[in-house]
Amino acid sequence: MARTLRLPMESSDRPLENQSPWVLRAQLTVLIGFSVFAGLVVLWISRLIYISWMLEDVFSASIGIALVAVPVFLFLLAMVNYVFWGLRRGRQDAGH
Q1: Each residue's pLDDT tens digit, 37-82
Q2: 10 Å Cβ neighbour count for 45?
Q3: Three-state DSSP state, 55
Q4: Sign of the CA dihedral with 25 first, then 26, 31, and 33 last
């Protein structure tokens, strides 16, 4: 039996109003909080590179850190989004 793929934003059998509000709030808090955190880390590293450049300092260390840290945080952000929408879809598919 082939399963059809559904986008997370499609309507489901159970509307969001019938689901536990505190679970939704907790999930959204984690999602938004980590998104803000990852964005601030990217801005912070960008600022470090800018300050190094303005001070005419060697900014190769800042670039080296950025080449590792930025993709890691963006990957973790993508994973948090994937898990969040996977949990939402899993609850909808289970009929809860």
Answers
A1: 888 988 988 898 888 889 888 878 778 888 888 899 889 888 888 8
A2: 19
A3: coil
A4: positive
Distance of CA 35 to the CA centre of its chain: 5
Q: Hey, what amino acid is at 43?
A: L
Nearest to 44 by CA among 65, 22, 58: 65
- Alpha helix segments (H runs only) across the chain: 21-54, 60-94
Scanning the structure block, which residue is given the tokens 């309507």? 11
Question: How many other β-carbons are positioned within 10 Å of the β-carbon of residue 49?
Answer: 16
Q: Is residue 5 left, alpha or beta, with left meaning phi > 0 and alpha meaning psi from -120 to 50?
A: beta
Work out the end-to-end distance of the chain between its first and last CA atoms, rounded to an integer number of angstroms. 22
Spatial CA neighbour of 78 closest among 24, 28, 38, 29 = 38
